[in-house]
Structures are given as C-alpha cells and as structure tokens.
Inverse folding.
C-alpha cells in the first residue's frame, strides 16, 4: 500500500509544518494559517481527505519526521536545491522565492554594490544562503571588498532582530516574506533591492518521501489545477499583495527525483 | 562454665592486609555468664565482635551459637560448608550487638528504631512490636523519649535505645563494644547501671570494656586479649588482683593509674621564650 | 531508511572544524565559569545576609531558565546597550555565565560539607580567611568537587550546541549547514552524536585521572569496610 | 524595535497555559526517573561485572550525547525497530532515561557520604539486603542528595522544552510561534524565561521546604 | 595570682537562640599559672574557649591578653570599639587552642601541619619553620612520625601534633578543650604527661578537663563552671577536698564515682524469656 492509497483508504492525512514562517505558515489565535495552509486546504479537498492532522514542529524535526514516517509529507515551504532534490521528491513550486535585500529604514543601500563592506544576514541552510554567497563572490569578482561578514541565523525572525539592533546591515530573504514584514513594520524596515538569482534555484515547494512519487504527483496535480484556474494567483494576492509566475517545468535541478 | 555454652568460638582468625587482627582466638561463654573482654587498643576486640556477627568474614575458625554453627559449619568427614546469606541472617537475631558508635538509624524515631527490626526480621505484627518496644523503652526509663529522633537524645539515652533495639529481638547473647567510652563522664554511671540490671535478669553478655571497676564488680569472668588472642582469663577479681602475665600486669597498671598523673617527667619540652 | 555515509566523507572538514571550536569554547567557558563560580560560592558562604542573598539570586536566576534564553538576552541585549562583540566571544561568555551558577552551587556545597573545625583551626592560629581557604579548605575540597563538576562540564559542553543559534560556527552549526545542503538528518545526527560523545569521553577520562590522583585515600577507606563496599560503592570490584 | 513591556504582559497568560504541558510531562518524567534511577543504582551495587560493563557504556552515551539526539532516537529511530511511540510517550521515555542516569550518578556520589555504621547495625540484626536498601540506605540517601535531585528536577523541566522537535507544542514552541507572527522574538523569549523561572523556583522552594523538614530529623 | 594576668575575662556573655551559654563569665589567669576548668556537660566550657579565640563573637564583655584588649576595646569615655579582623588575626597566635576534635589538617603531614602556620602567619622562612617544627615534634617524641599523615597516627600522637602546632606559634597562653576525652585509656596517661611537662616549662594554661586527678595534681587552681558562669574556684586540692557549693559536690560525686559501679538497681529490666 502506498502512502497515497493509505490516505485515500483512511481519509486521513498527516502533515508536518514549521509554523514560524509568515506569511506562508504561521500561528494566529492558536491556528496554523497562511498561504501554505490555504493551499493545503484545497489539496485536502481535492484528495478527498476527511481528516487533516497538521503538526507544528521546528525545522530540526521536520526531515527526520517525514523520513521516519511520522507524517505523510512536508507541508512547509522548502527551497529547492540540487543535493536536496536527490533525496526527496519535490512537488510543483507553490511560490517563487525571489531573493531580496532588506535594510533598516533610511539606510543608504539602494544597489547591489552598496552591500560592499556591510554585514549581511540570512538563514542558515536556507535557499537564500547560496544566493547570498554567490552575491558576495560576485561583488568580489567585480573588484569590490565583498561583504564585511555573512552571518547565518538558525531562524529568520532572529535575523530581523539583529538588523533592527544594528548587529547586521541587511537581510537577504525571499520577497514574499519580506514584503509582509515591511508592511507590518514600515517604520523599521524597508526593502532595498532584488538580488540576482544566479546562486541557485529559488522556487519554493513541498516535499514528500522519495518513494512517494505518486503522492507527490497527486499534490502537484492539484497545484497545477489551482494555478490554471486562478485560485493560486488569488491566494498570492491575498497573502503577498502581488501574483507570481509558477513554471511547469525547469524548476528542478538536473538529477532530481 | 555452669551450663552448655551459648557461645563457642574456636580458632577464629582474621587478617587485614598484613595485620593479624585475630589470631586463633578461642572463647566459650556459658548461659547466663557475663564475660568482660579487656585489652590494649588495636588488639582485635572490635574485630572479634564484628566477626561474631559475621559483619566481617573471618578467614578461619568456627563460631557456635546455642549449639548451632554460625557462618561456617564443620560437616562430617572434615568438610567445611559456608552457610548461605539467608542462613546467616536467620541466626543473627540470636546475637544482639551494641556498637561502640551505637549506629542508631538517624531517620527513625527511638520507638521506630526498636519496632522496625521486629516487624521486618521476626515478622511481628506492628501492634505487637510497638507494645514490646514501648515496654522495653519504659523499663529503660525512656518512655517519654520514644518519639524523638536520635540526634535529639543524649549519649546515655542513645545507648539505652541501642540496647532496647538489640533486646527486642530476644537474643540469646548480648555483645557490647566499649559501651561507655563515647560517653560524657556523668553519663557513664547511668549506662553501667543499665548493664548491671541486665546482668541481674540472667542475660548472657560479652562486654568489651575499659571500665575495670565494672568488670570486677559485674563480670563473672575477665578475658584479657592481646595481639588477637586471649592470653589470660579467669574469675574477674582474681585476674585483676593477681595478674599472671607481665603484659596484663602492665596493662592494668596503665589503666588503673589513669586517675593519678604520671609523676616522672619523661618528655623534655622547649622552654617558652 | 537509507544511511548514506558518503555525506560524512564529503563534509568531514566542516564537522572537524566545528568540533575543534566546540572543544575550545568548552575549555574557555569551563575556565571562566569556574572562576566566576568560585567567586559566587565564596560570596554565598560569607557571614551576613546580603552577600548570601546576592549569591542565591545569581544562582537561582541562571539555573532556572533555559540556556537559550540566557544566550538570547545576552546576545541581543548587549547591542541594545551599545556593546558589540564577536558572536563566539559573546556566546562563550554566556555559556560561562550559565555554567558558573552550577559550579557555584557545587563549590558551595562542597565547602559546607567540610567540617567547620578545619577552617576554624586555621583561623585560630591567625590565618586570614583567604589564607585558611587556600592552605586548608581548597586542597581538601578538591576531591569532592571532581565528580559533580565533571557532570556539569559535560552538560555545558553539550549545551554549547545552542550557540549555533547566534551564528557561532561550532559543531552543531556546521552540522546544520551540512544538513541544509544534504537534507540527510540521520547521517548528520549520527555523526554529531558520535563527535560529542568522543569529546565527552575525553573529558570524563581527564576527570577520572584527576579523581584518582586526589581521591585515592577515600576510595581505599570505603573498600576496607565490607558493608560499605557492599552498599555504598557502585564501582569497586566485588571483594573476593 | 525596542523592548515592549505591554506586549510581554499580553502574552504571559497564553504562555502560562502552554507551560502546563511542560509541568505535566516533567512531573511524570521526574517520578519515573527517580524510580528507575534508584533501581539502576541498586542494580549497579550488585556489581555483576557484565551488567555493570553495559551500564557503564549506557551512562557514557547518555552523558556524552545531546539530549536532543536522544529524543530523536526515541521518536524517529525506534520506529525502525518496531517501536512506534506517540510524541509524548517518546519524549517521556527519552528524558526519563537521560535523567535516570543522572539520578543514579548523583546517588553514587551521595552513597559515599553515608555512615556505614547504621547499615552494620541493620545487618547484625538480621535485616535482609532488600530491606536494608529500602528502609535504611535509601531514606538516608534521599535526604542527603535532596538538593541534587531538585537540581535535576529543574533540568528536567528545562529539558521538556526540547520536545517541541517531536511535535509537542510547549512553552518554548508557543513562544516561537508568537515571535514569528509578531516579529518580537525578544519579548516572547523573555516571557518564556519568566514562565520557566516561576515553575523552577516553585520546585526549588518546595525542595528547600522539604529539605528543612528533613533537617529536623537530621543525620 | 602572682604576676600580671596573661588572660583577663570580664563579664563575657554569649547567647544562642534562647540558650545562655555564657552568662557574665569572669576569670583571670596569671602568667605561668595553670587553671583547670571543670563543669557538667553543656555548661558552656567549649563556648568559652571559642569566644576567647574569637571564633564565636561574644555578645558582651571583654577579653584582655597580656594586657592588650582582644576583639573589643574599651576606649576612653566608655566607648566600645570593635577591633578589625586584621587586629584580631594579629593577636590570635598569642593564644594557642587545642580543639577537642584536634582538627589536624588531613591533607598535610604531621610536620607540615606544624610548619604551615608558621610560614603563613608569622612569615618565617621555610627552613627556619621546619627546624622549629622538627625540634618540637622531637621533644614531643614524634621525631619518627613527622612524615606521616594524621590518619596514620594514633589518638595520642595526633594530640601531640595538635599541641606542637599550637606551640610553634609561641603563644603566651595555651587553651585545651578536654584533651583526653577522645582518647583510649592507655593514651590518656601519655597526653597528661605531655601537659605536665608543658606546665613544668612555665607555660600558662587553661585546661577544660574531666580528669579530676590531673586537675588536682597539676593545676594551680580549679574553676568550677555551671550554667555559663564560674560558681566556685580556688586552689585545686582545696576545691576538690572541700567543695562549698552543693552543685560542685554532686558533680564531683558523679565524676569521682565512675570507677565504682553503682550498686543500687534503679532500673527494672525485663526477664529474658
Ligand atoms: N578494616 C580494617 N582494615 C585494616 N586494618 C584493620 C581494619 N579493622 C581493624 N584493623 C586493624 O586490626 C587491628 C585490630 O583492630 P580492632 O579495631 O579490632 O582493635 P580494638 O581492640 O577494637 O581497638 P580499640 O580498643 O582501639 O577499639 C588493628 O591493628 C587495626 O588497625
Ligand atoms: N552553635 C550553637 N547553637 C546553639 N546552641 C549552642 C551552640 N553551641 C553551643 N550551644 C549550646 O550552648 C550550651 C553550652 O555548650 P558548650 O558546647 O559550650 O558546652 P560544654 O560545657 O563544652 O559541654 P561538653 O562538656 O558537653 O562539651 C549548650 O546548651 C549548647 O547546647
Ligand atoms: Mg574497638
Ligand atoms: Mg565542650
């Protein structure tokens, strides 16, 4: 029996979510909400699931959890990269995590070159970490001094505090997250500029166990359908304030499952 | 030496890394007899009592209590059989030992110290054990102290609780290790009185003591021990009045002299400057 | 569930680098924390209410909240007050602060367990309290300090993993990088556990040697009494 | 993004509610760890060589590896050998096992400070070893190591915060959730710290009272 | 009472939560004089010695050592000045105290126990301190034990090391707390001999003791203490021979009686069954 068959048979679905990543998934009034949750609700409907168990746990527990079969798939936005794609099955992307730089309000950082000599922060082992490294390399290649330092935080909220208290000068993170934050705290933060994507793949997706391609395809099917009938764009407008393009293919690196 | 011996110790030996604490020790104690064991510090008195209760395993020799072998039995054809722990534990209540340091259980009240071994070892009902403990403590003059913890008792009172604890097991024989040496001088009399009363009830006793006065007045017999063996014994008064061995003589000189100060100035001391 | 050892082959330099930093942080935090711990313990045994109260506020506060919170307060709080230091330095200091509360409690208990007469006999010949501590109390207390201090040092060594959350590139931090790249949690956890265990074995062995040097007499006195050897010691070999 | 005291106050009730999870788990864990730690101590005292060799390795492992990893093993690795536990059971099992080792090690230290005299008296009276353990050794031992056990209890309470990685939503996880939507990680962490401080101070205080009570029946 | 008092204690009082351990205690000890302090358990003898060395801070009263105020000084116009810790420490070596429990330092050899205070407190060179320690230990008959640690010494030897440690500081006055009570009877004589030799050198001594024999033979004066104050004092032999207060009389009865066993059977004991 595959996982998909089990879900169909029992009508029960269990997913693991790191609910600390607004606006994708976060807790509000004791419930997990966000862009990802709304998509999940549609997926549940389409798969004919009657009971959804959504577990919230920190990132450290997510991958061991899905590998050990404690839940059926990871319904939390995961950046796509080459090595990961060899071990897990990515669904179709649900968002484009365009990397963007954010600064303290009023600071004079308006173009990539302004990051020379600055302390830049991002999340450890996130999809934007390689982006930031590539950016640093690019600055150096252009003859500049590069970042003064690249600081990697285990969670994004901490990098925001570090930016606010002057510990770092800029945060590189995907635009959807930053857009919401800046809307929330306009007197503290300000978007600086997009950074190039050439550090890697920046699409965000969900993952299943490698042997659950069937389930993966079923989920991807729902997402594609949502994209095609405009439901996805509506959700993007609702949560981010803008719509993005989700490609049909090419989002996976070579050698992916 | 009137009746069958309650305690018979033969050829008991015990060595501690090089020190021969007991060296083929022999002693018989008859029923109802009171034997005082005296001897210089380090001669093996405490070791003997510890071996007699099998707290320390003797290297060699035999112990018989009320005619039954204890710890080690000599079987037909000269085979020596070690008794099991269970067999040893079963005989232990027959021998009451009152330690020099008393070793009351600090977390239990005086009453509980006396009740607990009865219920646990002899399987007595709690009510029955409590009744006996109350009676014993009462007779030892501790009725109003039954509920106290050991640290709140004076030295003499602790001693009596320790005696009550041992008596509650109805032992055939009581062993005492220097029952007065840890006591303040005013309390010594109190405890000796208890021992004397106990003697009057016909209890068989082996008392390690430095109180020659007590030994002479209460004990039937004195055994003088040196270097792990009894080297002189006999009726109490006789032994003290006419020591035969020079070692006993010099020991008695030392101990009986203590009320007087040695007059010879044997040590030269620096003059204060 | 597969176990892919090739990951560890590829990434071992990162892990080794992290392990080396963890070891250095542990040693530095131990030294710093112990010194602070001794100071607080001395404060706690001073006569008078105020020093004792100060010491117990210090100890209870630091002992009763999770280390990660102490760390965040120090790490994010310092810049607010204008002080800016490298993360590794701040992290090590916070770790030392955390451990010092436990060390203080250990030292305090050990000193109080020493018979008062030892200190008094030194005072009565005219030694100052500091001299009495140094010549008489400290050498005797050393022995009883070793086992609980070892326990605490091991706990602290493992607790240093939390420093990863403030960008200190120690073992756990490096392992998170490896994990982020590979998404291979079990392989990485196994490697990290093994490395921590190795460091712990090293610490435990060092402490065992120290204990043997300062505690030989005590061990001998316990094993001499058969009843004590039977009930009161867990490690000595069964006599005969 | 300065410190906002009103925000801190506003989240305290929810954090306190979440703390009930930690308190409930910690209570169960402490009880189990005390029981198992005592049993392990008695087992080690038998000095059966092969058993103690195994115990030594287990102790070394538990002391030498992070608790987080032990929790992972209980929840994510044990299913591979057919032992699929619910998060709470796995968490209780892992932390109890860890704490058991520390309790037993503390007992090892405490035993060395007990006067053998009363045990000799018990032996001479014919009390059997299990009775001596139960009625004479352990009561004295527990009184003596009470401060260490209280210490361990506070460590257990803090340890329950790690159970968030196996989907137990506790104080710390609740604080993290709040931080991520309010972008105020500092205040929420201080809030969590206060909650832990209160719980652990209560334990310390209860322990001190018990200690004082024991002191009345001092050794 | 021949010369200027080495020790003058006036109106010394000390209370422990409700217990008045010292109650306006007065005592003078003249140079070269030997005073034996006797009294029932708990009457405050140890507390006195602890207050005299300022280990315990008396609530009230004054101490003078060799004419200099110690701990607390009465200034002109009735102002009482507490001395600083440094001043107190500076005077302490003048008073040698030998504790009842000796309190030797177990981690140092006998020799080192005597050397360390000299180098640390008096700032003597190590060689000089060692020479003096060797000499003292030699005169006390411990030359061959100098390298041993305390646990490997007998009770009497430990006592002598403690005495040497105090003497090495060249005190003007020696205080002893029950120097023989923790000793085996054979060792008592040994220690009393040392005290006697010490007395013969002209050392001023205040000895808390239960050894009435020693008090009578060696002390110049006996002070009998009860409930925190001296209630009777006088030349040693006279005090023992003719106690004036009933309390001293009954105390002496108790203490001197100990060699005899009380004959009356005051306690009823259960018959063995
Ligand atoms: N556990 C032990 N290990 C090594 N030697 C021991 C031990 N117990 C006793 N001894 C030695 O055995 C000898 C006899 O000791 P024991 O305690 O029986 O003497 P004792 O006659 O009771 O002396 P005291 O009158 O001082 O109590 C002594 O030399 C002592 O040092
Ligand atoms: N630290 C203390 N706290 C409370 N009470 C104390 C303390 N020290 C002594 N006492 C009390 O003060 C009184 C005098 O005690 P002290 O030790 O001076 O008597 P002592 O004459 O030396 O007796 P002993 O002959 O038994 O040694 C006693 O009632 C004792 O209980
Ligand atoms: Mg003895
Ligand atoms: Mg006293």
């Amino acid at each position: 029996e595959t996982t998909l068959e089990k879900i169909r048979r029992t009508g029960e679905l269990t997913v693991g979510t790191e609910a600390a990543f607004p606006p994708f998934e976060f807790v509000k009034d004791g419930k997990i909400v966000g862009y990802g949750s709304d998509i999940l609700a549609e997926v549940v409907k389409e798969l004919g699931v009657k009971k959804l168990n959504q577990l919230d746990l920190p990132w450290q527990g997510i991958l061991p959890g899905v590998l050990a079969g404690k839940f059926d798939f990871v319904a939390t936005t995961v950046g796509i990269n080459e090595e990961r794609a060899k071990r897990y099955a990515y669904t179709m992307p649900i968002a484009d995590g365009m990397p963007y730089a954010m600064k303290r309000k009023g600071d004079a950082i308006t173009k990539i070159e302004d990051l020379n000599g600055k302390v830049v922060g991002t999340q450890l082992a996130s999809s934007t970490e390689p982006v930031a490294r590539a950016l640093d390399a690019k600055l150096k290649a252009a003859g500049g001094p590069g970042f003064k330092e690249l600081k990697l935080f285990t969670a994004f909220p901490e990098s925001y505090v570090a930016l606010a208290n002057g510990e770092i000068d800029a945060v590189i993170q995907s635009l959807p997250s930053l857009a919401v934050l800046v809307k929330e705290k306009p007197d503290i933060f300000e978007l600086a500029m997009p950074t190039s994507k050439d550090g890697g793949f920046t699409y965000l997706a969900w993952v299943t166990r490698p042997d659950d391609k069937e389930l993966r395809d079923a989920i991807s099917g729902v997402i594609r359908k949502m994209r095609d009938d405009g439901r996805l764009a509506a959700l993007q407008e609702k949560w981010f304030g803008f719509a993005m393009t989700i490609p049909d293919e090419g989002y996976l690196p070579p050698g992916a499952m | 030496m009137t009746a069958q011996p309650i305690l018979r110790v033969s050829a008991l030996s015990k060595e501690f890394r090089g020190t021969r604490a007991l060296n083929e020790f022999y002693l018989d104690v008859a029923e109802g007899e009171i034997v005082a064991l005296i001897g210089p510090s380090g001669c093996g008195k405490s070791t003997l009592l510890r071996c007699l209760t099998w707290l320390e395993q003797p290297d060699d020799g035999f112990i018989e209590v009320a005619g039954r072998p204890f710890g080690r039995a000599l079987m037909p054809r000269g085979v020596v059989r070690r008794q099991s722990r269970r067999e040893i534990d079963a005989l232990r209540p027959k021998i009451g030992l009152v330690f020099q340091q008393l070793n009351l259980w600090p977390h239990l009240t005086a009453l509980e110290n006396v009740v607990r071994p009865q219920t646990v070892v002899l399987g007595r009902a709690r009510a029955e054990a409590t009744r006996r403990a109350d009676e014993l403590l009462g007779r030892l003059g501790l009725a109003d102290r039954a509920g106290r913890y050991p640290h709140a008792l004076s030295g003499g009172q602790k001693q009596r609780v320790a005696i009550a604890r041992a008596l509650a097991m109805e032992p055939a024989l009581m062993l005492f290790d220097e029952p007065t040496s840890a006591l303040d001088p005013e309390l010594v009399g109190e405890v000796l009185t208890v021992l004397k009363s106990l003697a009057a009830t016909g209890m068989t006793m082996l008392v390690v003591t430095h109180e020659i006065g007590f030994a002479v007045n209460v004990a039937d017999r004195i055994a003088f021990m040196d270097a792990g063996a009894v080297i002189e014994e006999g009726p109490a008064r006789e032994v003290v009045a006419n020591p035969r061995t020079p070692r006993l003589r010099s020991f008695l000189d030392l101990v009986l002299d203590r009320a007087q100060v040695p007059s010879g100035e044997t040590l030269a001391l620096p003059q204060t400057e | 569930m597969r176990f892919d050892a090739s990951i560890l082959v590829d990434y071992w330099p990162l892990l080794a680098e992290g392990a080396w930093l963890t070891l250095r942080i542990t040693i530095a935090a131990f030294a710093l924390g112990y010194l602070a711990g001794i100071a607080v313990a001395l404060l706690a045994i001073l006569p008078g209410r105020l020093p004792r109260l100060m010491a117990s506020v210090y100890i209870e506060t630091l002992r009763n909240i999770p280390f990660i919170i102490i760390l965040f307060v120090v790490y994010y709080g310092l810049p607010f007050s204008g002080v800016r230091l490298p993360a590794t330095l701040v992290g090590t200091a916070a770790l030392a602060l955390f451990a010092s509360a436990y060390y203080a409690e250990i030292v305090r208990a050990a000193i109080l367990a020493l018979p008062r007469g030892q200190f008094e006999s030194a005072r009565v010949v005219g030694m100052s309290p500091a001299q009495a501590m140094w010549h008489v109390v400290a050498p005797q207390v050393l022995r009883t300090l070793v086992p609980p201090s070892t326990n605490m040092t091991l706990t602290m060594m493992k607790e240093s993993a939390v420093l990863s959350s403030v960008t200190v590139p120690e073992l756990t931090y490096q392992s998170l990088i490896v994990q982020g790249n590979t998404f291979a949690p079990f392989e990485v956890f196994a490697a990290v556990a093994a490395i921590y265990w190795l460091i712990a074995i090293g610490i435990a062995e060092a402490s065992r040697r120290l204990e043997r040097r300062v505690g030989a007499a005590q061990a001998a006195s316990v094993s001499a009494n058969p009843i004590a050897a039977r009930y009161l010691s867990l490690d000595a070999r069964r006599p005969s | 993004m300065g410190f906002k005291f009103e925000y801190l106050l506003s989240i305290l009730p929810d954090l306190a509610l979440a703390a009930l999870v930690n308190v409930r788990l910690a209570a169960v864990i402490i009880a189990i760890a005390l029981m198992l730690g005592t049993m392990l101590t008695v087992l080690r005292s038998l000095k059966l060589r092969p058993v103690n060799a195994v115990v030594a390795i287990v102790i070394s492992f538990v002391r030498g590896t992070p608790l987080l990893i032990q929790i992972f093993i209980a929840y994510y690795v044990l299913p591979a050998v057919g032992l699929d536990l619910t998060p709470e059971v796995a968490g209780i099992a892992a932390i109890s096992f860890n704490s058991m080792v520390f309790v037993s090690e503390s007992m090892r230290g405490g035993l060395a400070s007990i006067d053998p005299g009363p045990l000799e008296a018990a032996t001479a009276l014919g009390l059997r070893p299990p009775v001596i353990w139960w009625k004479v050794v352990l009561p004295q031992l527990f009184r003596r190591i009470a401060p260490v056990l209280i210490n361990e209890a506070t460590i257990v309470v803090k340890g329950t915060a790690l159970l968030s990685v196996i989907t137990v939503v506790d104080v710390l996880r609740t604080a993290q959730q709040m931080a991520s939507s309010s972008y105020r990680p500092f205040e929420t962490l201080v809030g969590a710290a206060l909650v832990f401080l209160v719980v652990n101070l209560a334990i310390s205080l209860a322990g001190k009272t018990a200690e004082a009570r024991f002191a009345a029946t001092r050794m």
